[in-house]
Design a protein that fits this description.
The protein has about 525 residues and is of the alpha+beta class. The protein has four domains: about 1-55, no CATH class; about 70-210, no CATH class; about 225-395, Alpha-Beta Plaits (2-Layer Sandwich); about 410-520. About 40% of the residues lie in helices and about 15% in strands. It contains 16 helices and twelve strands. It has helices at about 5-25, 30-40, 45-50, 55-75, 75-85, 90-105, 110-130, 135-150, 155-175, 190-210, 245, 290-295, 380-385, 420-430, 465-475, 505-520, and strands at about 225-235, 255-260, 280-285, 300, 305, 315-325, 345-350, 370-375, 390-395, 410-415, 450-455, 480-490. Strands 1, 2, 3, 4, 5, 6, 7, 8 and 9 form a nine-stranded antiparallel sheet that branches. Helix 1 runs antiparallel to helix 2 (about 30-40) and helix 4 packs across helix 7 (about 110-130). The longest helix has 22 residues, at about 190-210.
């Protein structure tokens, strides 16, 4: 029997795809999209079949969950939880134990995908702060979520599918069905818990030997441009009262703490046990690889402001540039600024001269043409500096954004599922877990009011109101200030008009958010 031409070409395409995955450093997305393009061009299958995966609800759900995870990281909620649960482990084994255990436990009741997606930036931050090999944490993180998810019925979709098949078999066969009973939420726990424990022990013991560590690239020790960066500890700083060791600033990768200045006091020695206080000025020596992580650290604020910024910091960007010969600040010290009526809203985060950080504090440095600077800017800056009269922009420093440390309020929206209580509870837990710490305290700095919007397809808004009120009362026990519980009835996807096409409901929801902001006038974040 001869192999059809199309089948032979398909096998060859698959072989090339796997070869590129194993033997090259091309991003997997590029390889897979290239294989898909080749399959479409060669007509190996109908285009609708080749593109069907992009319309799969599971794929779309995963994509949306990654955006949700990024939002959780940007708000700082995930970082605050990680500080409490994980901390800053000193060894790889301690990091694996502190990360894998909570992830396995959480995945028993939460969806694996958003949990792993939210933990990826946490693992990255831990690796950079402790100089541990992230490559030995990422894969165990995924396996731990899989092992933990198999321990309960709702921990993984495959268990739910099996439970559904059991229910269908019992209903179809009736009295003739073999001896079986409906699977409860903890039905797989006796086997799954043992398997998870064995798997986690294997990951901790064998993972460091089987997974690659950090490798220094050729030329990594080459001379790099180093910047001097200054940050201060504000009165409400998350780092106030923490030691350098606990805050991750003592032995971090990518930057070095050069000095700590205290107004009116002798400069304390930079030691891991030094406790940070309000008003402390921290001077770092860093390059453009380590600076973004430092800039995005919760509790650190750039010291030097060239001109006031009225926009929220989580909307700002970080750019590297060179001071232009036409810059209006030439010859002036940074301490003399901000200047009145300047068109730019800029903070100078770091400065480098001739490839090295200045020896004196940045406030005493006179700005010269050719100085390399890293600036914190808002979006209008790029239009105002479009002719690069003030700064020649080299590049935007990407990969990090300022985490939103305060909020006018939190609105949690959750659908109401009927006939399956565990699914309804799981939906609530999936939405609430980023905002509640392990000790049942809210992870937001300060008091944050929260309101709920429950969406149901039944037209009677009072149908499930007692149960929903009981749930919000239970949430209030975690110290979240529950303000309102709103029910959006008669919303059935694809059958009835969506909420966005119902002006009365949209106005109620907008008023709910507006009232939350009014309760905290000091919060500047807009609804």
């Amino acid at each position: 029997m001869t192999l059809p031409v199309d089948a032979g070409i398909t096998l060859a395409l698959l072989a090339v795809t796997f070869l590129l995955l194993f033997a090259t450093r091309l991003p997997p997305t590029v390889i897979f999209l290239g294989a898909l393009t080749a399959a479409i061009t060669l007509g190996l299958a109908p285009v609708t079949d080749l593109l069907k995966g992009f319309s799969n609800p599971g794929v779309l759900t995963v994509g949306v969950l990654f955006m949700v995870a990024e939002g959780m990281y940007s708000t700082g909620a995930i970082t605050l939880i990680a500080d409490r649960v994980v901390g800053l482990p000193a060894t790889l084994t301690a990091a694996q134990v502190s990360v894998l255990g909570p992830v396995a436990l959480g995945s028993s009741f939460l969806n694996n995908t958003p949990l792993v997606a939210m933990m990826i930036p946490v693992v990255r931050d831990i690796a950079r702060s402790t100089q541990l090999a992230a490559s030995r944490l990422y894969l165990p993180l995924s396996y731990a979520s899989i092992l933990g998810g198999a321990s309960t019925l709702i921990g993984t979709s495959t268990n739910l599918i099996i439970a559904g098949l059991i229910i269908d078999a019992i209903a179809a066969m009736g009295a003739e069905a073999p001896p079986m009973e409906r699977a409860s939420i903890f039905f797989p726990t006796p086997v799954g818990l043992v398997a998870a424990a064995v798997g986690l022990i294997f990951l901790v013991l064998a993972g460091p030997r089987l997974l690659p560590g950090r490798k220094k690239e050729e030329g990594e020790e080459a001379v790099r441009r180093l910047y001097g960066a200054e940050f201060f500890i504000a009165a409400d700083s998350y780092l106030r009262g923490k030691t350098l060791e606990a805050s991750g600033l003592a032995h971090a990768e990518g930057f070095r703490l050069a000095s700590v200045r205290r107004s009116g006091r002798p400069a304390p020695a930079v030691e891991p046990g030094l406790t940070l206080r309000e008003g402390d000025v921290l001077t770092f020596s860093t390059d453009t690889d380590g600076l973004p992580a430092l800039w995005a650290t919760i509790g650190l604020v750039p010291l030097n402001t060239l001109s006031p910024q009225d926009t929220e910091r989580h909307r700002h960007r970080l750019v590297e540039g060179v001071v232009s010969p036409q810059n209006s600040y030439l010859g002036r010290t940074i301490g003399d600024l901000p200047a009145p009526r300047e068109p730019y809203e800029v903070k100078i985060v770091a400065l480098s001269r001739n490839g090295t950080p200045p020896a004196e504090p940045l406030r005493e440095v006179r700005i010269e043409a050719g100085d390399n600077v890293v600036l914190e800017v808002n979006d209008p800056f790029f239009f105002q500096n479009r002719n690069e009269q003030e700064y020649l922009i080299l590049k935007r420093l990407r990969g990090y954004r300022i985490k939103m440390e305060s909020s006018g309020g939190l609105v949690v929206a959750a659908p109401v599922y009927f006939g399956y209580v565990p699914a309804m509870t799981k939906a609530w837990l999936d939405r609430l877990v980023p905002y509640i710490g392990m000790d049942m305290s809210p992870t937001f700095p300060g008091s944050c009011p929260v309101s709920f919007i429950f969406v149901q397809n039944m037209p009677d808004p009072s149908l499930f109101e007692p149960a929903l009120r009981s749930f919000t009362d239970a949430v209030a026990m975690s110290n979240l200030a529950v303000r309102e519980c709103m029910i959006a009835p008669d919303c059935e996807r694809g059958v009835k008009p969506p909420v966005t096409e119902r002006p009365d409901q949209m106005e109620r929801e907008y008023a709910l958010g507006r009232d939350l902001i009014a309760m905290r006038p000091e919060a500047k974040n807009e609804f």
